[in-house]
Amino acid sequence: MNQYNNHFIESLNLDKCNSCPVSTISFCTILDEHGLEEFSAMSTTKIYSDSELIFTEGKVNQYVGSIIEGIVKIYKLLDDGRQQIVSLAFPGDLLGNIIDPEYSYFAEAIGQCKICFYQVSRINNFAESNPLIYRSILTKTNEQLSDARDWLLLLGRKSAKEKIASFLLLLADRNNAKSTQPRFKIPLKRQEIADFLGLTIETVSRNFSNFKNQQIIREQVGHMVTIVDFNLLKSIS
Amino acid sequence: MNQYNNHFIESLNLDKCNSCPVSTISFCTILDEHGLEEFSAMSTTKIYSDSELIFTEGKVNQYVGSIIEGIVKIYKLLDDGRQQIVSLAFPGDLLGNIIDPEYSYFAEAIGQCKICFYQVSRINNFAESNPLIYRSILTKTNEQLSDARDWLLLLGRKSAKEKIASFLLLLADRNNAKSTQPRFKIPLKRQEIADFLGLTIETVSRNFSNFKNQQIIREQVGHMVTIVDFNLLKSIS
DNA sequence: CGCCATTTTGAAGGTTTTCAATGTCAGTGG
DNA sequence: CCACTGACATTGAAAACCTTCAAAATGGCG
Predict the structure, then answer these.
(1) The whole model's pTM is what?
(2) Mind listing the domains of chain A with CATH numbers?
(3) Among candidates B135, B144, B195 on the partner chain, residue whose Cβ is nearest the Cβ of A145
(4) Residue B204: its pLDDT value, please?
(5) Between A and B, how many residue pairs show a Cβ–Cβ distance under 8 A?
(6) Which chain A residues contact residue B146 at CB under 8 A?
(7) DSSP string spanning B93-127?
């Protein structure tokens, strides 16, 4: 009975990874079957609903996660409440890190999110026999660094119009919308777009209106947007 | 003769690391004596003079470096020449990465710099027998990511005045100036400060003038600066 | 001393923000 | 079914902040 039960749990774990939609892009993808078996046994999957907090700045860094479904916004706050979104994390992206003693930002679900969590301490134990997991985490971290630096250029040097154009192209890219007229859902509210682009909600709204008037984009119900003139948008960005 | 020569070279390499001023903070610090011996044999030290280019965007990523002396600015450019400094790298900091196929930014020496280089391919070979080097690189990369995200908040949400204050405090911190009235050299020209803070040179100059008039800072010849009212500066930032 | 790069300062202008009001839309209850 | 509500988005007008353009001042160095 006990034996059967253990076997059952292990099967479940392996099934979980085998059926995981991000198994080929998450940081765990480098593991072989043996490593994955051990690794999957360490994981806990959790579902968050819209606007739920996942990490809080200042709290002890106990868990890292891998996003399975949904989008997570990573943001920082100033004392007076001004907010800056420093990253949007999509499925396959790593949430948190295994280095810092505490979280240095907030993470919040945008819409429903499914996240696969690991204890930081257990990852480090695991790494003793599977050190390549460090390289895999490094790869993910390096991507985030590269994205962050691209965004520094945007925040520091681009105009509002250029920022909005870049934002739309980023979303098109993240949605793998390869058509000449990509169509996708904008997952952020106007205020969140503003907090991502370092603008006010009014400036965001005005620039969206301009793009719509100039027929560069079209917006349908439910925040669906179509990029009508992709090349023009690219040259603006 | 050959034997003697080989031994001489190995001694030189070990000496190099033993006398290295950043041996306790660079990413190579985790290596034991054996690892360090092999590692140091892979390294090449190079000296750059002021304004010399170290990396160029788009070039194949062949080398990573560890800064031994001096400061390096990492920056990105827009097509029309607008520039954004995305990082200032100090002694002990890692330059470049071992993941990307090519450099995605420019790196330029600020003043004279001494840098210890390693071939990316050789680091990866080395890691096969010393995988913990990945964790060490991860730690450095993670720091850079954290700094980049702090800077996103600054660029996106702070006023010019707050930016200048934050910049001064950053320099004080990097100079380990723990006095109540820290004093240090500003290594950047006004234009570079502007490119770091997402401002124009005139705005930077005006805000420096304001701080000087309000006796918050004092500036001496040779870009030496004293923070007179540290707490005020902190509350402004 | 004079040159050149750099910095500072002034005045005008523009972009973005702020403040305020209006508009839209989905959900709720009369 | 439609009015009401509250959250979110848009629009307008004025103000603020930062930039742009221009000129003067400073400072290092031959």
Answers:
(1) 0.91
(2) 2-155 (2.60.120.10), 159-236 (1.10.10.10)
(3) B144
(4) 97
(5) 112
(6) 100, 104
(7) -EES-SS-SB--SEEEEEEEEEEEEEEHHHHHHHH
